[in-house]
Amino acid sequence: MKQLLALICGAMLIVAYAQAQTDTTSSTTTSSPATTSMTSSGSTASNTGTVTDYTPGAAITIDPGTGRPVHFVIGDKVQVLGPDGKVIANTDVKKNARVHLRLVQQGDRTVVDQINVEELK
């Protein structure tokens, strides 16, 4: 339970830091299977990585390429898109799939409201 709380706090710190920046920060690595990209715009942020754990409708954990997985809470109304941009079932998100997460404020917490599957596994 303490680890889960620590992961959530860490994710919120990353999002808060990204939202405080006036410039958009983007860092990508094309030679690695997992890339990281953290951008911020107003009250939304995003994160890209490889799925390490996923519970549809509850939570997703991704490795942004650092070797340290980050845990995110799924929002009440999450939209899941496939590589072609079309809506897919939330059960189509599989472990080791590359995803791009859109994060938004929902009340007093930051949650995932969109999962873009970049590469199906």
Overview of the structural elements:
By secondary structure, this protein is an alpha+beta fold. The protein has one domain (2-119): OB fold (Dihydrolipoamide Acetyltransferase, E2P) (Beta Barrel). 16% of the residues lie in helices and 43% in strands. The chain is built from one helix and six strands; from the N terminus they run αββββββ. The protein has a five-stranded mixed beta barrel with strand order 2-3-4-6-5. A hairpin with a 2-residue loop joins strand 5 and strand 6. The radius of gyration is 13 Å and the shape is globular. The N and C termini lie far apart (30 Å).
How does the helix and strand content classify structurally?
alpha+beta
**Strand order in the largest sheet:** 2-3-4-6-5
Distance between the termini: 30 Å
Q: Note the overall shape.
A: globular
Can you describe this structure in just a few lines?
The chain has 121 residues and is an alpha+beta fold.
Could you give the topology of this structure?
Elements (H helix, E strand, L loop, with lengths): L1 H19 L18 E3 L2 E12 L3 E5 L6 E12 L16 E9 L2 E11 L2
